[in-house]
Amino acid sequence: MAVSVDHIIEALSELGGQAHLDDIVAKVALIAPAPLPVDVGASVRARIQERCAEAKSYKGGANLFASVHGVNARRGEWRLRLDTLSVANPDGVLDDAEALIVHAEGKAELRIHLRRERSLALIKAFKASLTHYRCEACGFDFEMAYGPHGRHYIEAHHSIPVSQLKEGSTTTVKDLVALCANCHRMVHRNGLMDWRELRAIVATRSRRSG
């Protein structure tokens, strides 16, 4: 399956709005359903540059991505523009307007705000609400495995993918589930499975091997 712009937006949103290409590719590989392209990195790079006005391969339309150090620097660091989650706008919060008029290099431009972003503030609130940081599917505890380096680390899984949310939908911490990296990847593999189904699989296999 081809990597879409939506996959990249979702990946960058989860990464805080800015990340190196390698990290974006890894996150897209987790989000996008199988089968993935043979060269996921090349597909991600192509989609980003097609929606970056400074890139030679820009195809017009929504100008969604920006090179942090400039495209000529070739340092591989990319960010979402300000109308989605970004370092300069860490909570992904905009005015209530669905469409905004912005000015870029003296030219007025109509930019549509994409509401399907994950909010970094929501994820932080979710993690702050946790009484433990064990994976809800398999029970893995990063601190138990890695010591202080793994303390308070866990990934936040959205039970309904951002790409499937209807326009105007809102989410709360109740929509998020604490999963380790392995289980997070498993629930996204070949589409999306309910995390409770994965928990049942893990429990069944654990009983069989016990």
TrEMBL record:
Keywords: Endonuclease, Hydrolase, Nuclease. It comes from the Bacteria. The keyword Nuclease applies. Residues 122-185 form the HNH nuclease domain. GO terms for molecular function: endonuclease activity. This is HNH endonuclease. SMART domains: HNHc.
